[in-house]
Write a structure and sequence with these properties.
2 copies of one chain form a homodimer. In chain A, the strands form 6 sheets. A 6-stranded mixed beta sheet of chain A has the order 1-2-6-3-7-18, sandwiched between helices. The two termini of chain A are 17 Å apart. In chain A, helix 1 packs across helix 4 and helix 5 runs parallel beside helix 14. The first copy, chain A, has 15 helices and 20 strands. Chain A is an alpha/beta fold. Chain A is 35% helix and 22% strand. The interface between A and B is large, with 101 and 101 residues. Strand 12 of chain A pairs antiparallel with strand 12 of chain B, so a sheet runs across the interface.
């Protein structure tokens, strides 16, 4: 038997162990955006380091960054004449609370109908852990792997990888590889493998509007002092025109338009409006006129309101005229939009449309660049062969609506292809309540990822 | 010495005791809108009942309503040939938390520069307690009062007196009086007494916008699912035109326009924009074109946003596409606007302008009618004489921006004049952080309120 066959057999016979280990990892509430969770974030890193050491890597360490640490591991015994694969994933997760609408505690994973329900089950613990188990399957099942392996698990992806770029820059030799593999994207259908060939960039901002210095009585001052909640709504309502185009001047200037051929190809993967309505419960689909639903999420930039806060938000009535109002606003960007430039355009637009009776500030909270991949690259063809053997079907190529800022960083700094082999499903509900991950996807993912290391080694 | 002189002397020599008792009352966090405070609300009622009994009333009881109870007390020994004055005040307060920007704990009153800082100090515990001390000054200082006295303290004014109308209807005999006195309004200047001759009505609503059933990933669904926070902002931005007129069709239909003479008279009390800016910190005054600042808050209806909530409102970034967005919206109304009709107009307008991609609901949370008073009524002339003697100056007549729903109810149900003798200052900051009340106003208020009972008895 080849080392790949031995690794596949090992993964098959250790499925239950893999699953239990994943549940242990998920139980650690490694929410990177909440300062009081820093200890939990570190615990998740410790868990992965110990797991990789037990799998048989030569080296596994927790390395500091300017924020939450990274886990780095390597097994280089395939030798200098073999290729080196750098695997990237993230062990931090989005915030989650029962009050957001979860059916069960987001950090107590439960399995219903062969699906794990928990925060991070899909994004990205489930998908990242696939690769730890690939390493274990090769090193314990076969005693070796067909390529050199480096693993980099990050703890700040959900806060826009704020320190990762500096870490890569400072460790170019350590991270040197022939290809980078990331599993943090989704398929439309469990039987149709999909490879992501484009991720959007991100500019995440906060708008703060202030009128009076303190909250006032709405009867005494309402009507003579501008209401910051009203002013904020008036500003936000200016962001889109009637066709739902973003009105910020210059917003679309650097957008690379798809060719007619590319648009034609995307039609095959379009999202039927009826299915979207059934899946989400919305009365009507929404979006930018002149583009299909698939184009809107994959190829067009957007401007979203992620949060609003002002005044009285409890039960019942409080006749307050708030002093302040706040909105979280983010733009998903496509190649070649520059996140910093988009921030400046939005900031200037807001200053321009802000009413005279309020003071307005727009702050940049985080950002990341967009990236796209070439489907004719040899590494991408190895990806296709891996899916054909492992999943039984050639993959389709998708542009992802989400953002993985590190993709552009790896491409630029390491100068190698970045392969987005996602083993999630678009319906996993990452970032929302009842995030879940199918155990079938987890195990099929391990199998295909094992085969991929053989295909990329050729 | 007359009974009035004896009462004034008693009040003067018991000033410190009165002050300490007021602080004790303020320490009870009787926040009527918070269900977990129901016990505190009742404690405040118990405190007032005990205080009035100790003052020497014939009867003081806590009477149930559909919600928080009322305190009722009476002293009727002036006899059937004397007038009866019904005093109304409220012992419940607005919510308050340090996080709102308070300098010190809102429920631990502190005195700085002869001013009490605490929630309810002015609205309305300080002003309501004036009358309890007037009763005590007469009954303990003089052994009698020149009029029969009834006292009604309510515990639900800050939640729009939701049960008081029914209580009055069910107790018309108990509450029968020749005049009603309310102290829950403010003066512009401590040396210029002011009587309120108009209060605005109120329609308080909540707008709920929902798109998807659950929060979604903004990268996966942003751009194809309408964002409810955006939709809410788009709805709110439709409420006013460029001149800040409310655009809801029919909104102004029942507004009684002031006569040119009335408008001319109001000019004397106009608010200089520079003073408003200095007092509140706003960069520019705001409001409906064509009206002075005084007219805008006293004589024109308004539509205010009292609260906004959607999605992620914590620190940093969360790329959520929220399922829901909520706004608290209230209208201040003038005579003859009907609060229920205004609710229906706003509800229908919102349904009309709501985007197709979201579901919208507008709920009525509370309401109250506007009212205005005749300055030539004999009771109002007694008010003027009381201020001339007690304060040393004839009062000016103001229209209040705020709402006291019970004013219209008393007028309609008891058929007698309702006198708004406010002993607060407009700068007391009710409903906001660092609400405060001047001890000088408290003691001058007691003195003038003692004199008023003599003047109204004539």
């Amino acid at each position: 038997m080849s080392s790949t066959d031995l690794a596949r057999a090992y993964a098959n016979s250790h499925a239950e162990q893999f699953r239990e280990q994943l549940l242990d990892l998920i139980r650690i509430p490694s929410v990177s955006t909440e300062p009081q969770r820093a200890g939990d974030v570190r615990r998740a890193a410790e868990y992965l380091k110990a797991d990789l050491l037990a799998a048989g890597v030569e080296r596994a360490e927790i390395l500091p960054t300017g924020g939450h640490p990274v886990v780095y591991a390597e097994w280089l015994k395939a030798g200098p004449n073999s290729k080196t694969v750098l695997i990237y994933g993230h062990y931090d997760v989005q915030p989650a609370e029962m009050a957001d609408g979860w059916t069960s505690d987001p950090f107590v994973p439960v399995i219903r109908d062969n699906v794990i329900y928990a925060r991070g089950a899909s994004d990205d613990k489930g998908q990242a852990f696939i690769h730890a188990k690939v390493v274990e399957s090769y090193l314990k099942g076969a005693g070796s792997a067909p390529v050199n392996i480096k693993v980099l698990y990050e703890g700040e992806e959900e806060i826009a990888s704020v320190n990762l770029k500096a870490f890569i820059e400072a460790n170019l030799d350590l991270l040197k590889a022939d290809v980078v593999v990331i599993s943090d994207t989704g398929m439309i259908d469990p039987d149709q493998p999909a490879v992501c060939v484009g991720v959007r960039g991100l500019t995440y901002m906060q708008i703060d509007v202030q009128a009076a210095n303190i909250d006032l009585h709405s009867g005494q001052f309402g009507g003579i002092v501008h209401n910051p909640a009203l002013a904020l709504a008036q500003i936000i309502a200016r962001f889109h025109d009637e066709d739902n185009h973003v009105t910020v001047p210059g917003f679309y200037d650097d957008v690379v338009m798809l060719t007619p051929t590319e648009r034609e190809a995307l039609k095959a993967t379009d999202i039927p409006a009826e299915r979207l309505k059934a899946e989400t419960g919305i009365p009507e689909a929404w979006g930018e006129a002149g583009y299909t639903l698939r184009e809107r999420i994959g190829t067009r930039p957007t401007l979203e309101i992620n949060g609003l806060l002002s005044g009285w938000t409890g039960e019942g009535s409080k006749t307050v005229l708030p002093a302040k109002a706040m909105a979280k606003v983010s733009c998903r960007l496509v190649a070649n939009q520059d996140p910093q430039k988009i921030y400046e355009l939005v900031r200037d637009f807001v200053a321009e449309v802000a009413p005279a009776g309020v003071r307005v500030k727009v702050s940049l909270l985080s950002s990341g660049e967009a990236a796209s991949m070439d489907i004719n690259d040899p590494a991408m063809r190895a990806v296709a062969r891996a899916y054909e053997r492992g999943w039984g079907k050639a993959p389709i190529y998708l542009r992802e609506g989400g953002s993985i800022p590190v993709v552009a960083d790896f491409r630029k700094l390491l100068g190698v292809p970045v392969l987005l082999m996602g083993y999630g499903l678009n319906t996993d509900g990452p970032h929302g309540p009842d995030e879940h991950y199918s155990l079938a996807m987890f195990h099929r993912g391990i199998d295909t990822a094992i085969i991929f290391l053989e295909e990329i080694s050729r």
